[in-house]
Structure formats: structure tokens, C-alpha cells
Amino acid sequence: MEFMDGTWKKEINTWEELVGNNLLNQEAVIEGAVHSIRNMGDVAFIILRRREGLFQTVYENEMANVSIHELKEAMTIRVKGILHEEERAPHGRELRIRHIDILSTPAEPLPMAIDKWKLNTSLEAKLNYRPISLRNIQERSKFKIQEALTKAFRDYLYGQGFTEIHTPKIGARGAEGGANLFKFSYFHKPAVLAQSPQFYKQMMVGVFDRVFETGPVFRAEKHNTKRHLNEYTSLDFEMGYIDSFEEIMAMETGFLQYAMNLLKTEYAKEVQILKLDIPDVSKIPAVRFDVAKELVSQKYNRKIRNPFDLEPEEEALIGQYFKEEYGSDFVFVTHYPSKKRPFYAMDDPEDARFTLSFDLLFKGLEITTGGQRIHDYNMLVQKIEDRGMTQEGMEQYLDTFKHGMPPHGGLGIGLERLTMQLIGEENVRETCLFPRDMNRLEP
Amino acid sequence: MEFMDGTWKKEINTWEELVGNNLLNQEAVIEGAVHSIRNMGDVAFIILRRREGLFQTVYENEMANVSIHELKEAMTIRVKGILHEEERAPHGRELRIRHIDILSTPAEPLPMAIDKWKLNTSLEAKLNYRPISLRNIQERSKFKIQEALTKAFRDYLYGQGFTEIHTPKIGARGAEGGANLFKFSYFHKPAVLAQSPQFYKQMMVGVFDRVFETGPVFRAEKHNTKRHLNEYTSLDFEMGYIDSFEEIMAMETGFLQYAMNLLKTEYAKEVQILKLDIPDVSKIPAVRFDVAKELVSQKYNRKIRNPFDLEPEEEALIGQYFKEEYGSDFVFVTHYPSKKRPFYAMDDPEDARFTLSFDLLFKGLEITTGGQRIHDYNMLVQKIEDRGMTQEGMEQYLDTFKHGMPPHGGLGIGLERLTMQLIGEENVRETCLFPRDMNRLEP
Q1: Which of A115, B81, B253, B424 would disulfide-bridge A4, Cβ 3.0–4.6 Å?
Q2: Are B206 and A251 an interchain contact pair (Cβ–Cβ within 8 Å)?
């Protein structure tokens, strides 16, 4: 009987061995995709792409078993050779080839030159050829940054006593009401795709006190802007026993500090590839919604048209204001008008026209919406009634409150938007692996 | 201007302080939900439920500001008192109450007694009252075990050089073909919910070499069994540059070893609450599909009806065989028949009726399907043609192979099934927070 014991002996060298000193001037083996071939006549430089980065191998005619003319870009190969120090090569190393095994061969040449440092092609082309364009080193690095943000979110919250949950994406009704829902038939019953895990994460606060989820959400919004996706990844948390809605903002600030530190340490390679400036999040200003409008109106000489709404241009100016006045890329805008928030938002007891809620703006773009929720059953029922809404389909959600819930609140962060602003992209599609918008359902 | 600096001063004591020695015989403050009240006349024991566990507080008539008759189960309260050593209390501590702040009050009594150690109620009732039934300590512990498995999957794979990806759940077509797909209209275009991230994770192997995703998958299967859900969480990975499909099995074994160790250490509390036996995964037997059928047929005197199919009873018997003969709860069954695997499965070059693939059985139930995939464009196109399938809707997937892909393979693990078998549940709905089946769309 054969047994798997969890180990596997690879006959290739690790990246650490290749860029380290122990194997210098000795035989080494590497595998990778042929990223580019520069044929100089007597020698050719074959750059291999691996998950860790690019590695230079050198082809000298008389030494190898395969003719240089047989080698093509996008082949995957295993190369045996002698490891040399070479200042001009990436990581100061090159492998002088003795033997090549071809692992796979492409059927056609690449449709775009991915080996350029910056991929000079339209967003449309990038998205149409996503599996190819992401082979570009800069392009793929964006998604390592995105990974870091997700990882930081989870690891920080685990450390703060949160429990990870998985809530259903198929449901009978949406958390935000009837608009913007993708609808379909679920075994002959009407069903929708979840706009957010809002109801479920609240229900789970009664069980675990603090919960988070990182998963997809679906919005059938007919927006076709640079900031909207119809499916995106939401970083959600919800926490009970809060003293104030500001405790939620403190938790988000803690996450951002943890994330920026993770980027500087474990993801330093990608930060360098993308030449990112990591923003200072040691302290983030918080300003009331009405005050922010006033400040911007005065400084930029802009008339306040509607005191209960915030236009995208105003959002951008608030971002600009806090950058100029306080040097901060981030600003919490608090106390949003009640009309602009869902029924479950907790109104400010001091002025019920406003809520104990906030948005977090990053370089003038909303990346988070959060706040305290109503935890009292009767207050919640009253609010539903006041809004002329029906309780239908919310029975189990409401039952949760009927049977006791602590004061609580939470937030949702748009992962692609956070990544976009951090990297300085103009279009959120740049920071989504396979974006879904009104016109794009493939690849 | 106010600033958030990522810290928040809580006026309550941490769990570590409460169960430690430094605060003994001193004033301490705790918050929690009233899990149960045992009124003995002169004193009452009020057990608080927090995310960390249960904590005993003692109500003595003359000392507190709130009458015992005002207190109810499912209230949330903040309690100030004196911390005492008390052997018979959980964690050897109790808080003698001086002052109570009521944070929230339920509108109605609980519909079930959640304070019993084992929740004695039907699965149906548990699911109908999910936000309440999960407040039971045993019930919620199941989902901490599930969290541990997800966390272990990610952390182990990060350590093995994998990149986390987020792939779309809305698409133009499914990876496994037309059956079992939830269909809907996406801005007037026909769309489906993803059955698996299969195509996307393969495409991303060409970019990151090794990728994983933990996310929902959707199957419109008309099964109503104890083992099937119509939406579940899939732990997926895909890895390039494999030497053999057995390397994938080695990676899964490594994950399981990491997970079992994490359970024994960081999740020891929940392991103890559920009285789990952590299975030995130091080595997992691997047996060919045809050999496994033969072994079971001989030992249990069972006729082989169809040499190219495995019935659920046969699966269970294979599990039993390897438990009896090798003491293993797990067994890899390899070389599944080609007819039973999707078109992208790599056939065994030595016998094309079988594939370089495997299932992992855990106590006789399939929890993983994996294997090597076809990486050569022409071979893939041929296989599609041989099966009489169309390339329509697979253009970008196929383009990926046209432009070069390394040898690769991967797997998908059903998170709820893995949790179910580990805990020893009979029904997979027990280990899904909010299960979706043919009859259940709520809560």
C-alpha cells in the first residue's frame, strides 16, 4: 500500500537557494515560464517567470541539448545549469544552461507583449486577454497587494476576537430592499443574490459577539462608471457590545495600520514593483457630514445645494481638504443623514435627522460604509413601519432582535476600491481579476 | 478636529484578566448576554455568555442596584463586582455582583432552551431558529471548528507560495457543463452562478503558478440528501509545475496535518467542548479505484456491478476497509474512470479509460475531488471534440492554453462536509450556518 505523508521531494531548487550564496558556481535546477528571449547571437538570455519573480538564464550554443530556435516565449521549461553571480541580472544571479527539459509548448504566439515593464495596452484589451495580460509582472503585483489587504483584514480581526463566518449568497430577499437585486428562480421559488451579508452578520453577533466575512456581493446597479462593479469582494465585520459607533472606526483604523505594516514588510517586493507610497494611517481625522460640507464650501467656494446629500465632487473635495489641511489620505465622515441610510441604521438620539454612521473616504473616494445598528426590537419595528416597509421576508432577522441583541455595529469595505486607491488606479476594473459590469460577463 | 488612532479604551476587563490571578478579590467589570439564571432564593447565579465562553456571576439581594425579577434570559448586561475564586464555577472564577447596567432587553422569551449543554431539538427547529439555536455553546463551537479548517487551509497554502484569488460567481457558462446550473438574466444576457472556480483558478496558474480560493459555489442539483447542499463553501487550490498528480495529494495531506495541529492547539477549547477525536493524518493510504473496488468486494462479499462507477455504499465500505486494515479515517482513491471525470481531466497515458485523478474519502464520504488537468491546447481541443462538446463560451479559457500553460492540477474540498465528518454529524446542514437546499431558502 502506498501512503502520502505530506512531503514531496522536488528535484528543483527553491528560490531561496537560487538567490542565496550556498549554490554559487554549482549545479542548480529551476523551472518557469519563458517570459522573454533576447538572442545576442553567441549567447541568448532566457528570462524565466516564476511566482517569486524573474530569473535570468543564459543559453550558450555549445552547452545545451535544445537548439535556441526551438525555444519560444510562453513555453514552460526545466533548466539545469551552473549558478553564477551576475550583478546586472535580477537578484544578482544567472544560471548558465547545461540542459533544458521542455514541459509545455504554446500553440500560438502571445497576443500582446507581456514582458514590457509597463503593459502598454488599453484596459479593454487587458480585460479581454486577462489570463495573458496578468502574466505581466506589474499587472500581477496588483493582486498580491490585494491579497495583502484581505490577509491583513482577517489576521487583524482574528487577533481581536472575531469569528469568521460564511453566509449564503442566495436568499429570499435583499438586505437593502428591492432595487438593485439580481433575481432568479430557485427550484421554482423567487430568489435573489445577496447585496451584502448585512442581516446574517448581525444575526451572528448574537452568537459570536464579533464576526467577519470576506466574500462576494452582487449589485444589479445600472451604473457604468469607473468606480462601480456589479460583483465585488466585500470585507465585512460586525461587532457587539460597542460603547459608541466610533469604536467601529477605531477598529477599522487598527486594521488599516496592520495592513500598511504588512505591505511594508511581507509585501515589500510588490510595493517596490508598483512604486507605492504607503499612506500614513497613524491617525485618521473624523469630521461630521454637515461640518465637512461647510468646510469644503468655504475653502473651495462651492455652494451647498442639498444639505442632506453628498455629491461625488464634494466627496473628492473633502478628500482634498483633509490632504491639504491635515496631510491625511483618509478621512472619516460621520453622522450621515438618516434618509440616506438603510432602516437598520441607528439614528442619532440628539438629532434623528442624522445617524450614528460613517463613511471612510480614501483619496476622495468612499471605500467603507459603516455605523451603529438598531438593536432594540421595538425600535426596529417602528422604523420599518415609519418607512412604509413590509416585515415580509424579514421574520427571522426580526426574531433575532425579539430575543435579545447587544448594542452593535459594523462596516463593509469594498476590496477592489481600497486596492484601486492604494495603487492609484483610475478604474476599479484594474484591481478586479475578472470584473463584472453591465457589458462584461466574460472571461 | 477629532482623530482615530486605532485604539479604544474599553472600561471592561478582558477575558484573560477575568480568568487570571491579578484581579482576584478586586473589582472587575464584565459584559455579556444572560445565558441562564438559577435563582436559589438568597442568591442567584447569572451565567453570562461571551465569545470566549460562559462566566458565572452571583447576584446577592442586598448588593445590586437592579431587582432579580427585572433580569431575564437573553438580556445583555454590564456587571461590576468583586472577582472571587470558585472551584465549582467555569474557569474557577465568579463575579459577585455590585452593580448592573442593562444594555438591552429582549421583547419575548426565547423559543427554545439554549442553555442546555446539548440542544435537544430537531434539525428542522434548529435551522428555523438559526440565530437563536446557535447561541447554544455546543452548536456555535461547530463553527469555530469550521473556522479553524478554513484558516488552516489559507495559512498552510500561503506558506507554500500560493496566492489567494477572488473569481467571479456570475458567469456566462459553467465549468462542468449545462446541468445543475442556476440560471438568470444579467442585464438581459443569459448568465449562470458558478458551480466551481475551476476555469478561473486554472487560468491563474499561468500567472501565479499556485493559487487558492475559499468561496461559495452553487449547484442546482435536485438531490435532497444528508450530504448535499445547493450552496456550499469550497476550498479550492490549483498548482503548476507538478511532477505528478500525487504531488497534489501530498499538498492536501500537508494541509490536513496543519489543520489537525491547529485544532489541537489554538482550538483546543472547542475540541474539548465537542469531545472531538482528532484523526491521525500522519500518513494517508492511497489506493487505485479498481483495486479499492476489488478489495471491498472480496472482504465484504459484495458483487461488483459496474467496474466504472462507485456507489455511495461502496464508498462507505472503502472507508470501513481502510479503517479496519490500516487504522486510517482517510483514504485517497485514485485513477477514477475517464467517463466519470470532466473533459479537462488528464487521462492516464498508460490506460486512457482512467484519469490521473483522485477523491479523498473521510470516514467513507467523499470530501475532495482533485487531479491533474490537461495543459496542452491541442489535447484539450481534441478531448472537447471527442466528447461532442462545443467550444462556445470557453474561448478565453482555451486561449489560456493556446498561449502556454505548465503541467498543473488541483482540488476542491467541501468545507461543510469536512466539518461534518470531523465532528461526526449525520447531516451536512448541521455544519452550515444557513443551509440552502431544495426546500430551504430562509433564514
Answers
A1: B253
A2: no
